[in-house]
Amino acid sequence: MSDAERADDASSDASSELARLRDVAARDDWLVEVPSSSCALERSLGCGSSGEAFLASWRGARVVVKTMKLLHDDDAARRALARRAFVRECEIMARLRHPNVLAFYGANANGRDASVVCEYAPGGTLKQWLHENKGKKRSLSARLGMALDIARAFAYLESRTPRVMHRDLKPSNVFVSVDGRALVADFGLARFVAPRGEDLTGETGTYIYMAPEVIKSQHYDERADVFSYGILLYELVTGIEPYQPHHFTGIQIATAVADRAFRPKIPDSTHAGLTAIIEMCWQQDASNRPSFERVRESMETMVPDILKEEETKLAEQRENPSFQAKTLQNLSSTLADWSKKMSDLAS
Length: 347
Description:
Layout: H1 3-27, E1 39-47, E2 51-58, E3 61-68, H2 76-93, E4 104-110, E5 113-119, H3 126-131, H4 140-159, E6 163-165, E7 174-176, E8 182-184, E9 191-193, H5 212-215, H6 223-238, H7 250-260, H8 272-281, H9 292-319, H10 321-346
Antiparallel strand pairs: 1-2, 2-3, 3-5, 4-5, 6-9, 7-8
């Protein structure tokens, strides 16, 4: 069989999968025609490599519609891969229901067009929330709250039958809801993990959050997501992007992670309990990493105590005469700066 014939067969199979997806969506009442009288696109929220996201109104509610432009690829093999990825993402998201997973409302695939309708998260991405907060660092309480939300979401994915691997956990794939919850999103690379324990191979994800075994294209399972969580937890605890500052490319970092167990430097001031969880999650040997259920339990037990300790430290600092003097000095300096600015404006 020629390459062209194989590509045609793959395209035909993928088209059949799309038709089957439409049938399932219609049967289970999550087939959404886009655009239509019940789902109207309002404005673009941005374009990515796989499509464009729009703010939309669906049945009177604000939602996001993600259109898939890769289905229009002129290459039959790439088009078939894109169609299968779309079907897989819809099949996974349609089975997920959790307060910390972005809600899936419906999808549609009609010929060359495909779209997904999901929850609108006005808080933007976790990356924006954490690093673009007008130069202000989020409170430890808020950052640990996000970390706990994500642990709960992944413990849920781990508990599903079959289990679900996300395979691309990073701040830009987590959104912030209107009430401040973390919502795990973007299941475009996700996979079901077979009950009999089959695992996966192949480099998938984003280099600086990628587990060593994934970088090396070795067999891996859901513990690769645990590694990614360890890197993300470091980022949430410290407020620092992983491996910063550095002058290395993503590939150079990935090589060092895989071959030399290179990791971000955890500040000495980090709570010992959080340091322990981070280090357990990013163990080089996947068999030494904890389950997400264990991570969730540890975080739920530990976070309230950590926040109480931090509040006690802050209270002691506020009562310390030297701390009060420094605070007054900073306030005086700020007032002096404003006084000068007002004088300059007056003149």
